[in-house]
């Protein structure tokens, strides 16, 4: 799939002076709930009102959405507020019903993107539609799978395409519900700069008090928009209560966000500088995370040495590490002096950890 500026046409046609904002409840619960939230959002930066009516759940027995009935509620939102509306589709039947009810934009969820068979079924049902279609990244961090899903939709004749970055599942416990893996989003942008990229901070964080920071990072990385789950009574939402914000909080988030300005050379310089700095911040956080994991492994080694009464410093092993890292560093344009200083510091911290355990 070659880069094609036509894929941005649907976004450019909105002629926004701010990032695209898609907001609304995780789930459409009742007609009254949907309409109340929509009216609370109608005079804000929100361009598309979102609501899930078919909810893929990890385990059976949980609320799985109101189904096709919710499409009529979304039609009322359009009629009463003038906002465009969107919802998630997970199969060909969903696509057919959504298009029949004049839903303006559709998105395909992470659990669907992970399956080429499902994506092809949805692509066939979407063939030739002018409605924008957004494709969320798959649950697992597989860039090729994400791009493959987009290519299937594009091959069906859909030209108004966007991507949603909602983070990735991981077995490791982190502060995020779904690890953002920002480097993957950056690589996506580098490969396909003409595909609008929307950030979903609600699913990345899983916590409403973290939404703002993720939004700011996304905008610093030149994302085109945000999809933020919004509910007038988040604590009593029927699904994903912890990650939804109130309409008033959403308004405040949009006021407080630092948005890049287009136009003059100084603004362009600052935009590029902020983007590169945001990339550095992402990598720095990854470095700290990996160093923390390295020290956890050192703690394990310290316990083994204590049990066997073995000395902390093992000179042969240390010299092997240094030699290997110097060679690795050269391949990445890093000087021998820098590698030696960095790994001596890492090694000393590792020794400190092990001595603490042995002397504990």
UniProtKB/TrEMBL annotation:
GO terms for biological process: chorismate metabolic process. Its EC number is 5.4.99.5. It is an enzyme of class 5 (isomerase). One of its GO terms (molecular function) is chorismate mutase activity. PROSITE patterns: CHORISMATE_MUT_2. Residues 267-358 form the Chorismate mutase domain. This is chorismate mutase. It comes from Seonamhaeicola algicola.
């Amino acid at each position: 799939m070659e880069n094609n500026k036509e894929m941005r046409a649907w976004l450019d046609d909105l002629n926004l002076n701010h990032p695209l904002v898609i907001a609304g409840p995780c789930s459409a619960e009742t007609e009254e709930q949907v309409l109340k939230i929509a009216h609370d959002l109608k005079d804000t930066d929100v361009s598309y009102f979102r609501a899930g009516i078919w909810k893929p759940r990890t385990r059976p027995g949980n609320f799985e959405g109101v189904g096709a009935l919710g499409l009529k509620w979304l039609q009322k939102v359009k009629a009463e507020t003038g906002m465009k509306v969107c919802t998630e589709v997970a199969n060909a039947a969903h696509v057919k019903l959504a298009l029949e009810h004049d839903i303006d934009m559709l998105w395909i969820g992470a659990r669907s993107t992970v399956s080429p068979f499902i994506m092809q079924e949805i692509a066939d049902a979407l063939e030739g539609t002018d409605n924008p279609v957004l494709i969320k990244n798959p649950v697992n961090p597989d860039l090729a799978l994400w791009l493959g899903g987009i290519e299937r939709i594009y091959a069906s004749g859909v030209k108004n395409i966007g991507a949603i970055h909602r983070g990735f599942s991981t077995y490791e416990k982190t502060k995020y519900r779904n690890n953002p893996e920002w480097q993957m989003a950056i690589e996506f942008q580098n490969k396909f700069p003409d595909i609008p990229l929307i950030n979903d901070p609600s699913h990345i964080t899983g916590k409403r008090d973290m939404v703002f920071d993720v939004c700011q990072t996304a905008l610093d990385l030149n994302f085109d928009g945000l999809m933020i789950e919004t509910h007038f009574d988040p604590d009593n939402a029927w699904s994903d209560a912890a990650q939804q914000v109130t309409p008033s909080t959403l308004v405040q988030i949009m006021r407080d966000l630092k948005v890049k300005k287009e136009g003059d050379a100084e603004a362009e310089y600052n935009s590029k500088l902020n983007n590169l700095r945001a990339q550095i911040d992402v990598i720095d956080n990854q470095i700290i995370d990996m160093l923390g994991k390295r020290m956890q492994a050192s703690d394990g080694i310290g316990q083994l040495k204590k049990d066997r009464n073995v000395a902390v410093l093992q000179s042969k092993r240390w010299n092997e590490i240094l030699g290997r890292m110097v060679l690795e560093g050269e391949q990445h344009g890093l000087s021998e002096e820098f590698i030696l200083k960095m790994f001596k510091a890492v090694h000393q911290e590792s020794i400190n950890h092990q001595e603490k355990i042995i002397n504990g």
